[in-house]
Amino acid sequence: MYVCICNAIREAEVRELVRAGVRTAEQAYEEFGCEPVCTHCTDYMQEVLDEEALQIEAAPVQAYSGLVND
Ligand code: FES
Question: How many angstroms separate the alpha carbon of residue 52 from the centre of ligand 1?
Fold first, then answer.
């Protein structure tokens, strides 16, 4: 699925950037070497970044909780 049609940026590519430390839409466009054209995607881009960051941050807690319960 595309996050940004104008720049052909896919959701998987955006999620991959989060693993490299990118947290804002502005940083993402910079990493992709482009700029928003119509800007219809910027809110969705940020939502995808936030969602992926939450999943990454939650992962160690889940693993730790598993160790405590064992
Ligand atoms: S859809 Fe991303 S700039 Fe237009």
Answer: 20
User: Could you tell me which CATH number the domain at 2-69 has?
Assistant: 1.10.10.1100
Contact criterion met (CB below 8 Å) for 17 and 9: no
Ligand 1 mean position, distance from CA 39 (Å): 5
Each residue's pLDDT tens digit, 4-63? 999 999 999 999 999 999 999 999 999 999 999 999 999 999 999 999 999 998 986 655
Q: Which of 29, 34, 40, 49 to probe ligand 1 with, by most ligand atoms within 8 A of CB? A: 40
Domain spans of the chain, in order of start:
2-69
By the 8 A CB rule, do 50 and 18 touch?
A: no
